[in-house]
Write a structure and sequence with these properties.
Elements (H helix, E strand, L loop, with lengths): L27 E5 L3 H13 L2 E6 L4 H10 L2 E4 L14 H8 L3 E4 L8 H8 L3 E3 L1 H7 L9 E6 L4 H14 L4 E5 L5 H5 L7 E5 L2 H6 L9 E4 L7 H4 L2 H9 L8 E5 L3 H9 L7 E5 L8 E5 L2 E4 L11 E5 H4 L7 H16 L4 H10 L8 E6 L2 E5 L6 H8 L5 E5 L9 H7 L3 E6 L4 H11 L5 E3 L8 H18 L5 E4 L12 H15 L2
Parallel strand pairs: 1-2, 1-4, 2-3, 4-5, 6-8, 6-9, 7-8, 9-10, 10-11, 11-12, 16-20, 17-18, 17-20, 18-19
Antiparallel strand pairs: 12-13, 13-14, 15-16
Length: 512
Amino acid sequence: MNATVSSNDADKNLDDLVSWRADWRGLRAVVVGLGVTGFSVADTLAELGAEVLVIAETADPDQVDILDVLGVAHKIGAQILPANFDSAGGTREILESHAPQVLIVSPGVVPTSPILFWAAAHEVAVWVDIELAWRLRDKTDKIADWILVTGTNGKTTVTQLTETMLVAGGLRAASGGNIGTPMLDLMRDPIGYDAVVVELSSFQLHYLSPGQILPLSSVCLNLADDHLDWHGSFEAYGSAKAKVYEQTLVACVYNLQDARTEAMVENADVTEGARAIGFTIGAPGLSQVGFVEDILADRAFLDDRKNTALEIATVEDIENIGVITPHLLANVAAATALARSAGVQPFAIREAIRSFKLDSHRIELVGEWGGIRWFDDSKATNPHAAAASLASFEKVVWVVGGLLKGVDVTPMIQRFKSKIRGAIVIGVDQQPVLEAFAKAAPAVPIFAVAPGLEKSADDARRVMLAAAEAARDWATEGDVVLLAPAAASMDQFVDYADRGLSFAVAAKAVNS
């Protein structure tokens, strides 16, 4: 098929499409991927009158039925797989037939995808839903301030806690992005919001142009190896994360315990007047939020910050959230800085802290038997998150492993080897974990659970039951059995929640 991409008179100027009230009719758009987010993109563009084509490897039949009702064209099936990009009826033919002016891609589309090379060769813009949502944020007269949250670990907790603080402060607020409600659904709310807290993954940030969004405040919580298989290098991963600070209006919040986040702020092109605000688990200095003994204190958002500090909450208040760990204290300090940047008063933040609860599978106590506590931190899907868990306990029988995403666990094992009484290795990427222990902690006892031949519920139950039995046999009174896999879960489980639930069931089974 001959290419039909051209710069004809009907082409829209994308620079003009920066409002819900702009004329989106006739814009030729291809939506790549039909998860919850992809569907929200297709639905929104159809409402605006764009000419939309959805291409996806798989799709929920109910969503496809709704696309049919909306009159949105779609191509679902193997013909759009990258391996078949140039085959008859494949992706290239589909794209050239539709001649899109913009691709809105799922953040999971890797930078090396032939779809992206095709878009670059044909000068077709590539967006993610976040950029489209920003352009459409004025659907109602109430235009929300955006607060951006990213980092290797802690994003979801800080996003949800910041939202809770904003609501406690009397603002109509919501959270979305990489979690929860798609951003386009929030932008289409008939009432509108005062503020939205947007969790951003490195994938989403990769596709955003620097300065595309003007957030009220922003934070990169921390930076450590993760998703190196997707980004190709740690440098590329860090560069994506650093985009979160671009054009920030009020506060660039950074981690005093992670110099790389401070460097990101120093190098960011921010709006004039934006301030650098540090958060710490230690005593706060000028323009910082941190802890004076057991008091969470603000020395950033008050007039006499050189000489005084505002008391926000106590560690006792924070204990209502969950097990006190350095990681949790840092997350609370970061969320407090973001909420204070939006004008939320200390008493409201304190009430929010007292009422907030962590999501499941985040250092969650499963049970205690014979003086041994069992914790589910299945959400620890990378070494940085697992390290935060390991740092919280003295003696650990550690359940570790899964899909490692190209990262090396050797430094973490070296750091915590004195705490690890034994390690139970699960997952399909066992060899790198076993080699890391052999290199960094050869004296630590290891039990490797044989992976199943295929991903199934029966395999998942078997894996966790074997892991729990080994942990029970090794642990003694005062120990912690900790599921903190430092790896993704999709090799043997549906997701991290499924992995955590399997661990909880197995722990109770072997201790009953």
